[in-house]
């Protein structure tokens, strides 16, 4: 009996601690900037890689909580400009290791992505687009360098804090829509809302469905909808948490021409209405023509970045 009470107490304490922790974001004027003197490693073999990972782990346990509270921690001497940019990358590299073999994937990336723009990441298969999207969205971590997203250095967040960061700040649309089959369109969208635990949500679910042109379909189940409609529900789910940034990896990849154009139109509408920064990956140069900015990725590097002064409308691009 006594033991059970003790356990309950423990659980309560744990829950309290977690909910307090989430409210720990400092007021803007109290936030600090910390420059970490992170020594340079010359060795690009397995030894150097292990030394980098070790240092990153140490810095992560030291600074992760502080980053989540709103402080800026930089290992490259760069301070992010959050008024102007949604995302900033400095000296970013990513490897995969297999035994003693190190395979470089991202090979040294510096990048600034302006807020409230439509960004298209373009490049051939295997060039590193998905890897890049995953590290800037906090789904995966880099091996070296700073990734500032909405001001937070994702490189030094531990996994549980990274999860909190994603819940609070970013939305995802995948090539496969990943809807829950036993929930209606509206209920699927509400899943996003509940996960983010945001009380002051700027958009109501009804407003979101109106924006995506799906108000009539809100009570349908996934199997009663076309692919394009399901993808729009997955956009609604991502929008339900009012994300600063909306990420999509080949969001029209599974759709036919008509539905693909429709989904792109919705994304442009979302940018216009809610000022959301939209970042999508595609291997299709035609789709890139609707972007404000195109990031060309080749062989793990940014080949070039170009701005479209007059982006095309989804109805104006070739499709194939
Ligand atoms: N877990 C992993 N382990 C080892 N190598 C990986 C891993 N994931 C990806 N890669 C390699 O990284 C490179 C970049 O992969 P990525 O998925 O980022 O390419 P992509 O540009 O998105 O290609 P696609 O257009 O085909 O989706 C590829 O050579 C891939 O084989
Ligand atoms: Mg990919």
From TrEMBL:
Q: Would you name any one GO CC term?
A: membrane protein complex
Keyword tags: ATP-binding, Nucleotide-binding, Transport
Database matches in SMART domains: AAA
Protein origin, superkingdom: Bacteria
The answer on whether this UniProt entry bears the keyword Cell inner membrane reads no
According to the record, the residues making up region (Disordered) are 1-23
Q: Where is the composition biased (Basic and acidic residues)?
A: 10-23
**Any GO MF annotation of the entry:** transmembrane transporter activity
Stored InterPro entries? AAA+_ATPase (IPR003593), ABC_transporter-like_ATP-bd (IPR003439), ABC_transporter-like_CS (IPR017871), MacB-like_ATP-bd (IPR017911), P-loop_NTPase (IPR027417)
Gene3D superfamilies per UniProt: P-loop containing nucleotide triphosphate hydrolases (3.40.50.300)
Please report the stretch or stretches of sequence annotated as the ABC transporter domain.
87-317
Pfam families linked: ABC_tran (PF00005)
Q: Which SUPFAM superfamilies match?
A: P-loop containing nucleoside triphosphate hydrolases
User: What family does the entry list?
Assistant: Belongs to the ABC transporter superfamily.
The name this protein carries in UniProt is: ABC transporter ATP-binding protein
Q: Which organism is it from?
A: Spiroplasma helicoides
